């Protein structure tokens, strides 16, 4: 009996020790799992809290003068486009989170949005100016900004939301054109995808050869806008180079070619308006706005 007890005690001590080890291991594993889960939750929360922000644009309607009845429909249509542009720009902010470099929001969304707004605002001013005094200074309402939250997420960039389309996003908006007085100049554009290694060249129809006789009073303004078309081509080509590898398969179309067309529409419209003040306004010039990408 005295010899059996020690054996029993040894077995009991061994059993208790083993159980304690199992319990301790379980606690360690559970603690690790909880820690991992907590870390995952924190990461998820951090990603959720890092919102893209909101684009804010100055209101245009309150700054307009009395609108002639003959211009009301066109003005309303363009005011509606400004609202649509804001919604599209905000959607693009969400869709492109994490894309591009520190200047992506400014280059692909805010800049194109401003250009689209300039075009829409210019159409509003032109519509009013046909039968009343053309409102001046409305272009100051084109620039938009990115809310503080979005600015932080986008590397402190300013953005625009409000009217106007996002230049980078849809190809709508008042983008400026890269059209040149030569026979449709070419600018850089790789294979429509930003991921392509090659940059390519942007090609636009020439505007100057399609213009009628230019009144002396309009010559300076026409020349200035033709110069802007040349500048726009150069800027679009430079953007092709600067954004190689950014965005998805439609990046070049949405962030460069679309906004470029909108900018060209705005510049071409200013040229037609300048000529139309003292001569017959040229028609059909908008067909020269679209540009293409060539390798």
TrEMBL record:
Region (Disordered): 153-196
Signal peptide: 1-35
Keywords, alphabetical: Signal
Compositional bias ranges of the Gly residues kind: 156-165, 174-196
Protein name: Secreted protein
Protein's organism: Streptomyces pratens
């Amino acid at each position: 009996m005295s010899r059996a007890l020690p054996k029993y005690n040894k077995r009991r001590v061994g059993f208790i020790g083993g159980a304690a080890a199992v319990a301790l291991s379980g606690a360690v594993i559970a603690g690790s799992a909880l820690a991992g889960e907590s870390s995952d939750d924190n990461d998820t929360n951090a990603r959720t809290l890092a919102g893209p922000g909101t684009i804010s644009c100055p209101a245009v309607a309150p700054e307009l003068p009395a609108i002639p009845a003959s211009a009301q429909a066109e003005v309303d249509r363009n005011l509606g486009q400004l609202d649509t542009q804001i919604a599209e720009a905000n959607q693009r902010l969400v869709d492109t989170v994490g894309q591009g470099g520190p200047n992506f929001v400014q280059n692909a969304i805010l800049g194109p949005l401003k250009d689209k707004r300039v075009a829409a605002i210019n159409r509003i001013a032109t519509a009013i100016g046909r039968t009343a005094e053309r409102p001046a200074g409305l272009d100051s309402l084109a620039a938009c900004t990115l809310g503080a939250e979005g600015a932080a997420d986008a590397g402190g960039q300013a953005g625009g939301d409000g009217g106007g389309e996002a230049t980078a996003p849809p190809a709508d908006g008042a983008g400026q054109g890269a059209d040149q007085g030569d026979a449709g100049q070419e600018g850089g554009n790789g294979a429509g995808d930003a991921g392509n290694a090659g940059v390519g060249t942007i090609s636009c129809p020439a505007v100057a050869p399609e213009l009628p006789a230019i009144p002396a009073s309009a010559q300076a303004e026409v020349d200035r806008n033709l110069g802007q078309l040349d500048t726009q081509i150069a800027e679009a080509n430079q953007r092709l180079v600067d954004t190689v590898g950014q965005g998805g398969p439609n990046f070049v179309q949405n962030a460069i070619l679309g906004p470029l067309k909108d900018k060209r529409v705005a510049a071409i419209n200013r040229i037609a308006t300048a000529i139309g003040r003292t001569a017959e306004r040229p028609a059909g010039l908008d067909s020269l706005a679209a540009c293409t990408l060539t390798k």
